[in-house]
Amino acid sequence: MIHPSYVDLMKVVNKGVEEGEEPVISSRYSVVMATAKRARQIIAGDEPMVKVKDKQKPLSVAVEEMNQDTLRILTDEEKDNLDDNGVEEVEITEEN
């Protein structure tokens, strides 16, 4: 079992969503796609936004960034209204 779990990560991403609103993500697929995209950014040279342990892999760093709420998945509305708030933003859209 991985830690944090997909359910935990989905809760972190959706924590600002009010009752009755559509969640930012509703599937594990979105978590996987967002962390994979961020891991590729780290591999390409972007600085990690969390403390990296010795020999920690980029995907593990991306998962930790999401778990610590320094990595966000943007909704379509947020993507249209980008503002610099100090949080790394990974654009991902869910396909049904």
Notable features of this structure?
96 residues; 4 helices; mainly alpha; two-stranded parallel sheet
Integer tally of domains: 1
Distance from N terminus to C terminus (CA atoms, Å) equals: 27 Å
Beta strand %: 5-15%
- Total helical segments: 4
Instruction: Give the uncertain stretches in residue-range form.
Output: none
State the share of residues found in helices, binned by percent. 40-55%
Number of DSSP-assigned strands: 2
Strand order of the largest sheet: 1-2
Helix and strand string, N-terminal first?
Answer: HHHEHE
Rg calculated over all Cα atoms: 13 Å
The averaged pLDDT comes out at 82
Q: What is the general shape?
A: globular
Describe this structure in words.
This protein is mainly α and 96 residues long. The chain has one domain (6-91). It has helices spanning 6-13, 28-43, 58-67, 76-80; strands at 71-74, 88-91. A two-stranded parallel sheet has the order 1-2. α2 (28-43) packs across α3 (58-67). The protein is globular and about 40 Å long. The mean pLDDT is 82.
List the helices and strands and how they pair.
Blueprint: H1 6-13, H2 28-43, H3 58-67, E1 71-74, H4 76-80, E2 88-91
Parallel strand pairs: 1-2
Helix pairs in contact: 2-3
Brief summary of the model shown:
The protein has 96 residues and is mainly alpha-helical.
